[in-house]
Amino acid sequence: MAFKRRQFLTLAAFSGFGIGAIGFGLRSLAVERDRNRTNLNLVTTLKDSLGPLQLRLIATADSGSGDKNQFAVGRAMADYHTRSPFQLAILAGDNIYNSGEISKIKEAFEQPYGELLKRGVKFRACLGNHDIRTENGVPQVKYADFNMDDRYYTFTQGPAQFFVLETNTTVDWKTQMTWLTQQLEQSKAAWKIVYGHHPIYSSGSYGTNAEMVKRFSAVFKQYRVNLYVNGHEHHYERSRKIEGTTYLVTGHGGASLRPVQMSESSEFSVSRFGFSTIELYQNSMVIQGIGTDGKVFDRGIVPQWV
To answer: Peptide bond before 69: cis, by omega within 30 degrees of 0?
Structure first.
């Protein structure tokens, strides 16, 4: 189905301040629940008009606890895969708690996601701050099922090119940013998705990182990056479009949760275990938050750059 101008203008309006925009700032939990329930219904209706799906993937971070919460998230992922198949899963760091010990790989990765691995889902990881506590993360880089080509790397799947970063303080930022700029400049992909462990915009415990904003915002704007995905903050948060880029915090994959508020940059945020899904269509991206009960608790449609 062709993507009509009226539909695009409607979605563009939704992406800035949210469907039925109420303005930013702190809201009562009851008001927020009512607003999001209305949003889910409206976005579900609009989703039917987006045309053929080009790529579906999931994302999680701060997941490697090996406890009941991670296993619950893993089961919800497998159930979602049964209903809505996907072949790619992003791991945005802190893949093994507490210190990145590869000796814990079974309980922190292979067992919780065993069903997805059996079905051929490919995980693509990056390094978090906990991951580099053991041998600077080298064993994880070498671990085959994390599919890390290096400490930072790029790959293409479907219409999207992914740029995977190491955002730890020990990284050679000058060299990595030169590499990222060159890769973005050369990219011909319709969708550009960057992910790393640490947040750029966030309303959680660490908050928006001014240094990361300074480092990335101009580059993202110049090369039209559609989405940045991260963990480190232990909650779920989808931002409004900020100079064309959406920021997704998905650090609710199994480690202990932390509180989160709404801020000027927020479109929706919540502290609950689960994972994120990303669907790419010709002109729009659909982002969802799904809980361990398998229910969608957030859904937003983000128009492509124009």
So the answer is: no
Cα separation of 5 and 276, whole Å? 28
> With bands split at pLDDT 50, 70 and 90, how would you rate the model's confidence at 305?
confident
Residue 4 has pLDDT above 60, yes or no: no
- pTM, entire model: 0.89
Position 1 in a domain:
no
Rg, the chain, Cα only: 18
Give the range of the structural domain holding residue 238, as residue numbers without chain letter.
23-303
Count how many domains the chain has.
1
Specify the CATH number for the domain of residue 90: 3.60.21.10
The CA dihedral of 168, 169, 171, 175, to the nearest 10 degrees, is 120
Q: Would residue 283 count as lying in a domain?
A: yes
Residue 201 CB coordination number (10 Å): 25
Given a contact cutoff of 8 angstroms between Cβ atoms, the answer to whether 238 and 213 are in contact is: no
CA distances for 57 relative to 12, 67, 85, 220, 278, angstroms: 23, 24, 9, 21, 5
- What is the per-residue pLDDT across 179-225, written as a single tens digit (0 to 9) for each? 999 999 999 999 999 999 999 999 999 999 999 999 999 999 999 99
> Encoding tokens for residue 250?
């998905």
Phi, then psi, of 24 in degrees rounded to 5: -90, 180
Q: For the chain, where are the alpha helices, taking DSSP H only?
A: 5-17, 29-47, 68-83, 105, 114-118, 138-142, 173-186, 210-222
pLDDT tens digit sequence for 26-64:
444 444 545 565 567 666 667 677 999 999 999 999 999
What pLDDT does 135 receive? 98
